[in-house]
Amino acid sequence: MSFTEILHSAQRANDSMLCVGLDPEPAKFPGAWKGDAARILDFCASIVDATHDLVCAFKPQIAYFAAHRAEDQLERLIAHIHRVAPGVPVILDAKRGDIGATAEQYAAEAFERYQADALTLSPFMGFDSIEPYLRHAGKGLILLCRTSNPGGDDLQAQRLASGELLYEHIARLAAGPWNRSGQLGLVVGATYPEEIARVRALAPTLPLLIPGIGAQGGDAAATVRAGWRGGEAPAPIIVSSSRAILYAAPGEDHAAAARAVAKATRQALNRARGVN
Amino acid sequence: MSFTEILHSAQRANDSMLCVGLDPEPAKFPGAWKGDAARILDFCASIVDATHDLVCAFKPQIAYFAAHRAEDQLERLIAHIHRVAPGVPVILDAKRGDIGATAEQYAAEAFERYQADALTLSPFMGFDSIEPYLRHAGKGLILLCRTSNPGGDDLQAQRLASGELLYEHIARLAAGPWNRSGQLGLVVGATYPEEIARVRALAPTLPLLIPGIGAQGGDAAATVRAGWRGGEAPAPIIVSSSRAILYAAPGEDHAAAARAVAKATRQALNRARGVN
Fold first, then answer.
1. Annotated catalytic residue within A28, A95, A139, A263
2. CA-CA distance, B170 to B152, in Å (whole number)?
3. How far apart are CA A14 and CA A17, in angstroms?
4. pTM of the model
5. Domain ranges in chain A?
6. Domain A3-273 adopts which CATH fold?
7. For A115, which residue in chain B has the nearest alpha carbon?
8. Beta strands per DSSP E along chain A
9. What are A63-73's pLDDT values in tens digits?
10. Tens-digit pLDDT profile for residues A229-240
């Protein structure tokens, strides 16, 4: 199954637009695990086990593993997700951006070594930095378009001589000439609902990955209203939350607390869509 | 010593603007090592040993290690470089781009785990995706500005409403408001000498990392004429070549062949500068 098919199927099966971001920080681990980088897998697996029937995707962020020499734990975590939740896709958040032979190596890392279903990429180097990944048929490639941080304005909100903003230019390319194989999606931050709506208008059928609700302060309801288009067109949104779920409680009830926050977030998203 | 100081000192000591890019591809390894990912360290170390008195920097590309689960070999390679060539800086080519806590993890990976002297970054997410790295005093951060691939035009050569091209906008920010701590440099591809000259004019004192001579076809002499400014101002250029040196010969004489190509490339660069 392709990433898009798994994603649609998980969204239906779990009635969810919620993606749990797996950003493990040992300093925030509960109880006896606190500060122990050897517990990254255990901690993330406890979150996966507690939430996998509530989500449409999991999104491990590779930096949190690489900083602790925990690549092996990341491999085993993704294998664990595929085992306990075979219907839930894994988006590896790595924001890679390079060309030619180097891009082929990154693609091998994401799709062969880690067995991810999708990967985040930076579009900064242009289409030939995207193209090598598309040879991995069925895998999803989710391009940075409009990010949720204040500094996102420095480049992405620059107005081009053509009249477009830079992020609109990216959305138009990703929805059109770059998307020959139907594998592309876009990252748009939840802190800018009006810009989610703009990207959705330019890219009506692309999956949108929307980080920034929860700890980063994005409004879940406004996010869904801006990105969701019901009816016949398949236009999924994947709304990602990390810290608000992972670190919902500092003690041994952390997994139950994570489940409760995930459930409430899923419900808030569905309510904004007019479901439940 | 800061990255800039080590770089200056290596350029003087070895009379060189040449950086050897370490992009190990086991399929291209010589003799009995061919196809053996366990020989990545041995292969790269043989190149380092054969060229370290001819270069101003080494630039390992992390994707070539990550695709083969060879992070441990990358750690040992960088330790090897620091041991045999303590005056030659290591630029980790990873083109990271993320914000806040995630950027802090990538910085820990590059500077604490791998002990690199400098790191390549993507500027796509803006200044707050650069700032966390600057807290690592003395480390160099080299931002993508104008890349050497044809697709680089898709975003970087877009004209802004202000009249600037996007890469000029980046060069201006990197030379000005973003460079409070003096740690920044810029990546500019060798395939566009006139654009190297433009970036040099906008960023007269920043180190420029220039990949693309050799296998990618950039002209070494034109590159140096465009980027080099002699006289009193410190404006180093770091001209990077990978495949043309690493795979100069397929047999057991590969290290001697790599040395010969590195020597010829160094000389061609120096000649263009008016030295030798």
1. A95
2. 14
3. 9
4. 0.96
5. 3-273
6. TIM Barrel (3.20.20)
7. B67
8. 18-22, 57-60, 91-96, 118-121, 140-146, 184-188, 208-211, 237-241
9. 999 999 999 99
10. 654 445 789 999
